[in-house]
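Team,

Forwarding the record for the chain on the shared tracking sheet. I've put the sequence and predicted structure together so nobody has to dig through attachments.
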Amino acid sequence: MTRFRRLPFSLAEPVAPAPAPTGFVEQLNHRLSVGALLHQRLQYAAVSLGGETLCWLDLQNGRVLVAEPAETMMVRLQVAMSAQLSSLAFSALDPDAFERQAQYTRAAPLRPTLWQAGLNACTANAPLPPLTAQSSLQLRRWPDFRVLAHRHGDFRICALLIKRAMDVEACSLALSLPRAEVQSFFNAAYLSGYAYLVQTQTQPVLRQSSGRGLVQLWRDVRARWSA
């Protein structure tokens, strides 16, 4: 009879814990993820640039208050993510402080606001750090349809990334979409917490489909959405 020896526990390969997010965008993605949201301590936060508050976030209920003038502050946030990312910071906020601010500032949906900021964050649609040109993303779930309404290509990217992780180059080739358009989608999806980074070795190049499968997919999505 063959006898098997149990390896000492010390020889087993350790499972490395996921590193804690460090950068502003990475922290925001982490806090917007479903798993992190259930356990996070920071549910209300202020986003500041060099000590000046740009907006207030209600991560628990998906709301954002943008400091006035709102359009100017959103542009400053987008510019900061492109050129001054290290100067952006979170600070904890008391729930009562958020509600007091909400009396003077109109709340907007958090994820659609971040999505729009991500689309315009980087000049020439460069990767938004910590993303790189080689980063592979996969969607956690379908984004709010409001953020996809005016960009038909984004629906096609969603249909691809909901099934598998891909990088910008592979996604662009598979769907015959401009690389800049795909990169801006990646920036928006990661910033708003809809997508997560996946470590992949190789990615197959997919051929562009005839479109019939995509049509059927939209029919199924509409059916589930209206159910």
